[in-house]
Amino acid sequence: MAVIVVGDITETQNIIDLIKTYFERQPRGMPQHLEFPLPKHTEPRLIAHVDSALVKWRMSVVYVTFMFEKEGWKCVNDVFINIQRMLLQKVILGRLKKRFSSMSKPKQLQYSRDDSHMYTIYVVSVECEGYETNKVLETFLVEIARMRVHGIKENELSEGKDFCLCIPKGRYLNHHDRSSEQLRRTYTSHFVYNEADFSPKLEAQLMIALTKRINMELIKNFCEMQFAASNLSVIIFQSKTFVTQEEMKRSLQKITDFEKEGSFPSWSDEEMEGLTNLIQEMEIESGKIVERLEHFDIGAVELILSNGMQVTYQCTKNDDKVVLRGFSYGGLSEVTETDILSCSYSSVIGQIIWLYSSKNLPMIRDKVNFAIEVDEYKRAFCVNFDSSDIELALQILYLLFTSDLEPEEEEFQALIEDLKIRLSPAHQQPADVLIDTVKEINSGKSCYYKAPVAEDMSNIDATKAWQYFQNCFRDPSSFRVILVGNLDTASVNSLLSRYLGGIPRPHRPIMKFQRGKLTTAPFHFPPTVIKEEVSLAVGSGNGMYTCISFPLRFNNQTLEEDLLLLIILRNLLKVKVTQVLRHEKGIAYNVDVDTFNPNGDWSCSGSKPGTINFNLLIKDNDAAQMAVDAVVHEIEQLKEVGPSQNLVQHVLDRRPSLEEEERNTSLMNQMLQAYGSNLYAGNIDQSYKILRDMNRRAWDLFNADVAKSTLKRMLPYPCQEQHTIVNLRC
């Protein structure tokens, strides 16, 4: 028997005594592990199933699963096997995405992994048109057979190893943030299943050393073993019969015969030439750099391009992803109330139309992660990519600004129907429903913060939403783009000039707004206590989500310092509330604290509204009010008495390390804060350094008195009389 206790425990002897009291007299005996081995099969399992409940008519979903017996991390070789499996997963998913993107309509692959004590199962699924079901099935089988015959290519091995090397580095950097649940699972696997429990540093060193040992010969042998027929099952769900089980067997036999004959060419001979080069040939009239300014103290370079776009890049030596952010002021707050409903869905509708406008874009997303957002005060995009894919990332941005698409009315109608399904109660995620409802209530039911519901879809003008989206990303002269990462300084200027500088500037300004003169979207936190109950159509029986929100007030004179202090105070409040609700009262499974700033236009005069939200997962409905009362009480205590020295020290111990502050994402956040700060007046070097020094002072000077006075100044008094509560029954 193993008794595992993980948590924020100050007196361990009390826990040991309790364990002895309850478990010491348990009779000794050999542990009995119940094992239920799955029956082996020498050929792939093939199942065709008709499911009339499928949402979309004339469509199929093809599921391919690989099942492996799980050995656990009992020795170094087990770790080596796990790394090779991760590498092969990345390669096969990449190949399938390239293959499916060449079909008539882009296909979105989904990937998941399920673990038990004895087995690990990897599931790859793809949704397709019914008439393409058999083609999708054969594509799966061909690519799996091709890897058995030929293995993988040198460049795939190199990319896969780079991917595997990033994982242990990321885990090591985040090892201080391991939750109690993660530690409990790790110790359970160690004591119950004899799996090794490495220290974060040793695990990172081991995985890096083993990854570097992988070579072409090893991976070829591993492909033959891992993609054996005994590991594979295929299940097809169809809205009606497009493929029968007999047809599946014939397809399998055909591909098996080809494999025995050696008829499969290697991936590079047949596919790589046309599909790996995702960069499209374009006739672009390259722009020019009209102004260049170097900031040596912060390692940044500012450019002004000939089309008016402002670009800043900061070169680092980090191996993590290059991060790119672009933004322009002016958003939904400038839209009239009659158009706000349609325009608020512009980023969702626009991204879907734009994404599927090019057959290459779904495949590109595997290499370049990008997202587009239009909120109340900004239009923005964010892109993450490897430094070798910078040209691909910049080409995506060029297409965003220059694509001139005109979808048919039928496409708009299909899109609206799809959104109705996504927003139906049965398909919504509890966390999304909670966040949207909280925003709407905290804003005083403002139409600019209305929670999305399926019923709204009948009132949306999709054409208007699409036109608004196109106007949002049309004028390059209003945008600032920032890049942070390991960039090749010899080529970055020419690439920026070609793709970003080559975006045509319209004859007249489109959506040209000044940061200090934006229209304010109505946001009025309720003056009293508001309580709202929300229920999901399909309950999970996993307790209740509760969000308790309080208004925050900032003032221009102390705004920058307050925003930095708020980051530290959020950590303090999370630790304190977790200690009370989880460890003392035992009524909350999880506690999180976040803040919301509804007013991005910080340069206006007067006080700034905001909210601080306590997101709780409560064990049952009866405990919800008890949790609310406890949170309100603890905040009042902190305002009146202040935090204990132990609590303050606990928060200070979580101060980001120098290594964490030098990550690309952290450096990007610092750049965005410097450009978005009231301190910025055209000199990024100055605002960047002032904010950096302010942040250091905030951590250095933080103590119980600072926490007490800041909470008094920011939060309402008393908190019992002004807050909102949203309970989501799930």
Automatic annotation (TrEMBL):
SUPFAM superfamilies: LuxS/MPP-like metallohydrolase. Residues 1-161, 460-650 form the Peptidase M16 C-terminal domain. Gene3D superfamilies: Metalloenzyme, LuxS/M16 peptidase-like (3.30.830.10). GO terms for molecular function: metal ion binding. It holds the Pfam family Peptidase_M16_C. PANTHER family: NARDILYSIN, ZINC PROTEASE PQQL-LIKE. This is Zinc protease PQQL-like.
